[in-house]
TrEMBL record:
Subunit structure: Homodimer.
Name of this protein: Transketolase
GO molecular function annotations of the record: metal ion binding; transketolase activity
EC number: 2.2.1.1
Binding site for thiamine diphosphate: H77, G126, P127, L128, G165, N194, H269, F441
CDD domains per UniProt: TPP_PYR_DXS_TK_like, TPP_TK
Cofactor: how and how many bound: Binds 1 Mg(2+) ion per subunit. Can also utilize other divalent metal cations, such as Ca(2+), Mn(2+) and Co(2+).
Family statement drawn from the similarity comment of this UniProt entry: Belongs to the transketolase family.
Physiological role: Catalyzes the transfer of a two-carbon ketol group from a ketose donor to an aldose acceptor, via a covalent intermediate with the cofactor thiamine pyrophosphate.
Gene source species: Rhodoblastus acidophilus (Rhodopseudomonas acidophila)
Annotated Mg(2+) binding sites: D164, N194, I196
Residues annotated as the enzyme's active site: E415 (proton donor)
BP GO terms, sorted: pentose-phosphate shunt, non-oxidative branch; reductive pentose-phosphate cycle
Sites marked Important for catalytic activity: H37, H269
Amino acid sequence: MNQAVTAEKATAVPFKDMANAIRALAMDGVEKAKSGHPGMPMGMADAAAVLFTKFMRIDPADPAWPDRDRFVLSAGHGSMLIYALHYLLGYDDMPIEQLKNFRQLGSRTAGHPEYGHAKGIETTTGPLGQGISTAVGMALAERLLNARFGDDLVDHYTYVIAGDGCLQEGISHEAIDLAGHLKLGKLIVLWDDNSISIDGATSLSTSMDQLKRFEAAGWNVARVDGHNEAELTAAIEKARAHSDKPWLIACKTVIGFGAPTRAGTAKAHGEALGAEEIAGARQKLGWAHEPFVIPEPILSQWREVSRKGASAHAEWSKRHDASALAKKFDKQMSGAVPEAQEALKALIAQHVAEKPKLATRKASEVALAAINGATELTLGGSADLTHSNLTITKGMESVKPGSFGGRYMHYGIREHGMAAAMNGVALHGGFVPYGGTFLVFSDYMRGAIRLSALMGVRVIYVLTHDSIGLGEDGPTHQPVETVASLRAIPNLLVFRPADAVETAEAWAVALDSLHTPSVMALTRQALQPLRVTPSENLTAKGAYVLREPEGGRDVTLLATGSEVEIALAAADLLAAQGKKAAVVSMPCWELFEAQSPEYRKSVLGSAPRVGVEAALRFGWDRWIGDNGAFVGMAGFGASAPAPELYKHFGITAEAVAEAAKKLIG
Ligand SMILES: Cc1ncc(C[n+]2csc(CCOP(=O)(O)OP(=O)(O)O)c2C)c(N)n1
Ligand SMILES: [Mg+2]
């Protein structure tokens, strides 16, 4: 009976007041900050109100409930929409003070929604196009888990609000093509079809028929008046009922809806409206309340959403507790892979004993075989370079359209879409995604790699063909600046292992790094075994002394990856001439930087240093110091067999020994 009373009370608040609460908070938040984007939340307030009051299944008291619906505000500039929603829904970390401190230092209400800053923010958005593409990964993870655990445990939707900008960005094409192909039917995108972006009308720059585009990519499409509650409701209902394909619902809206002079214009996009315009909007919308004040009946009806969500959550918990799969499900969602770590330990011992000569891409494949054999949590994939990246291992089935029992993704030739999807998979939880392409093409996915790092998610990039060592494909395919540019991204571990042991160690660290993405920069060409005695995981230290000469050092040779064996050969040449060279392998600069100053000093020593890497010098001065030398690339590579290229560009043991001798004097 209580429920009936609540429901009756709920219907007492007109829908337009529910939506206007969002509009008012968005206007007021942006006005107080004198910064931000009021137009999008005002335009999409009706769609958001319909979505959240009638459909979203979330429990703000437990924002990590695994079977919650996911919501992605792909048009991240409209961040006040999500903050307003979270206040209205009653998230305990989003009191009204947070909205009053929009965009201020230390507040949760950052300029764009930031994953981890506030509960319920499923992903960081703001770089247009990333949200919708990340959502594809979330919707994929949902289907993968559903295939394993059934509707009782996993059966939720992924909703996206995307703007014109998100759909114009190239990454959206990769994402929608992938989602349409796979038939991710529980993905529902609401497009804020307001025909306005920053420069003015979208007709300035596009003639695209988005509905036809999405249809061509295998989506269901619908068109509604984005200010009409009934049309919005019917469209979302239909989309939920027909989950054969993903859905695009084009919501025709007026940007800045309600603002008397700015509505429908680019002036509503990205600045505070000003007191006069806001007063006019309040009048036009029929919203007589003070700034940041939401009357109790409206607030109470909004909070009903959370109460409904909590009871859906409770029902799910009952199903979960009664399920024979509960334990397995919890383990899957925990993301813990202790069995894989054990398997890697055994593999490393085997490598030390057997001393295989392997390309590090091959060593990575061997490591993956151990990992994938030990845990079911990994989701492999490649952007159409599976047999170059060596990312598939025995027994891995491909994920196919409408068929999600496998755990290997053919992402297609869509590097950026792959990286964003992997972010979505990691954020959703349940899988450890890794995906491959050539190292040089990491530039094609840099936007998403940067977000992996900013959000702190465990995504592992398998980037093979890591230098001129790839040979004949030539300079278009030979990275020279790429490793340096990846090292420049904060909170990203860039591994360039030197042999099979270091490669397995790098995988162990990457799997252990729950809040840091990793890059594996791997060779095409075979490398000598270097780590031939048992030891702790030395790659975890970032750099370590591989060879220490007796009686002190004349010089220290620092190298990574394929150049470590060159440094060792140079040390031999120097020894023959009575010069004492230490050799340091530096598989991961970021981890070395994190060691104690004492450890770093003990590794680097006080003798002059030579850096060796088949890449540009950029960044190396940090390690070789003012009086150091560098042997590597000075520009782009060339097309020829790899051994010739190493000679041609002077990356040889002789050249390293020569550089060392000059330093020793
Ligand atoms: C990758 C990227 N490029 C550029 C921007 C800067 N930017 C922010 S919003 C915007 C216009 C977006 O237009 P639309 O999605 O239609 O948003 P609306 O004006 O309708 O709110 C631009 C260019 C960005 N945030 N991300
Ligand atoms: Mg727009």
